[in-house]
Amino acid sequence: MKADRNWLPDATDVDWIESLGRPVHPALAALEAAAAPGHVPIVDRESGRVLGVLAAGRRHIVEVGTAIGYSTLWMALGQPADGRIVTIDPDRSRTDVARAAWRQAGIPDDQVAVVNAPALDAFAAGLPELAGPFDLAFIDALKEEYGAYLDAILPRLEPGALLVADNILWSGRTSGSRPSRPGDGSDELRAFSARVLADERFSGTILPLGDGLLVATYRP
Predict the structure, then answer these.
(1) Structure pTM?
(2) Cα–Cα distance between 85 and 216 in angstroms, integer?
């Protein structure tokens, strides 16, 4: 129970939590630095730490939205040595940066498979590496396609799998704490979140860290 029900965590609390954590791997720090100048979308570090925890024990992971491989690396570092990740992104220039970072971190080349294609096209193509079943699926790509990603991923999830999605708060635009505008992805993120959390096959919640992280367990 909270000592003060009116209290909410702020940046000071986040900084204190981060100060207690182990230093991030140099390859992760390098990706953070590489993302900043070009505003490459990567998860917040606190969300990355959560992904690393969630990946423990997960051997078959699919990720929609690689960018420069920051979230991929958190999961690769967290999963067992015999784990595998399939990550999807159409931008080869970004995934080339990702591959270099993974190698710097000592991730074996066969631990992460990259599919350079739009995610929905990749799923529709029936690629063997996307056949599943997967025990963790992470979504962080085009916000207006989150519902379609879910449709594609659901048949590929094994019982007990985790579904994780980033940007669910969308800087406050989905909750209404900040104004949204038509076409900015807010409506689709609201619909995706409501759909998952109302689905009796899922048990989940939204963690108010980073830009909002939906975490749900799939129990069909």
Answers:
(1) 0.94
(2) 19
